[in-house]
Amino acid sequence: GLADRYPRQLSGGQQQRVGVARALAADPPIVLMDEPFGALDPVTRKQLQRELRRIQAEVRKTIVFVTHDIGEAFLLGDRVVLMRDGRVVQNGAPAELLRNPADPFVSSFIGEDRALHSLQYTTLAEIAGPAVDGRLFGVDGASPILPGHLSVLEGLRFLGTPGRAIGDGIRIGDEQGRPVGFLSLNDLVATLGMTLAADDGEAHAVPD
């Protein structure tokens, strides 16, 4: 454990873990985190990002997370507020900023790999069809179930596994693994096509 150690005896990652624990121990309604992982190495930073997501899923606290890393913002945030010179330029879900940047500044801040970012930070749950009364329409019971928090990119990788039998698509599960939505292959292809079209600024017609 870390309780008996002095701060100087802790690594940077351990100090950040203790800092997060101290902030949450007081049970505040809102937690402000100002670039908490900025000074860490990339490996430790990724680990703490995953831990913060896990903790947030358990404690369900509102966290205002300040960062200059747009990828980190998309990974951790339910909503992203992009500011310039003290003014809000755009405020929305990560998928909204990726698909519809408000102006050239937002586009340049996100970077040239907007299509890849969109596939990385748009979740399967965001594009899946809903379930009604706990039943999934048009779903073969043998269709695989994937957690809704997985990204579209992770879903595509799953579907691309050699020998994978998926039928018409995949079922989307909640935190307990219960199917709550369905994502057809057509939905995935359409999402991929719209993402690439938005990235290169061209419109592409997809035949029926």
Automatic annotation (TrEMBL):
<feature type="domain" description="ABC transporter">
    <location>
        <begin position="4"/>
        <end position="37"/>
    </location>
</feature>
<dbReference type="InterPro" id="IPR003439">
    <property type="entry name" value="ABC_transporter-like_ATP-bd"/>
</dbReference>
<dbReference type="Pfam" id="PF00005">
    <property type="entry name" value="ABC_tran"/>
</dbReference>
<dbReference type="GO" id="GO:0016887">
    <property type="term" value="F:ATP hydrolysis activity"/>
</dbReference>
<dbReference type="GO" id="GO:0005524">
    <property type="term" value="F:ATP binding"/>
</dbReference>
<protein>
    <submittedName>
        <fullName>L-proline glycine betaine ABC transport system permease protein ProV</fullName>
    </submittedName>
</protein>
<dbReference type="InterPro" id="IPR051921">
    <property type="entry name" value="ABC_osmolyte_uptake_ATP-bind"/>
</dbReference>
<dbReference type="InterPro" id="IPR027417">
    <property type="entry name" value="P-loop_NTPase"/>
</dbReference>
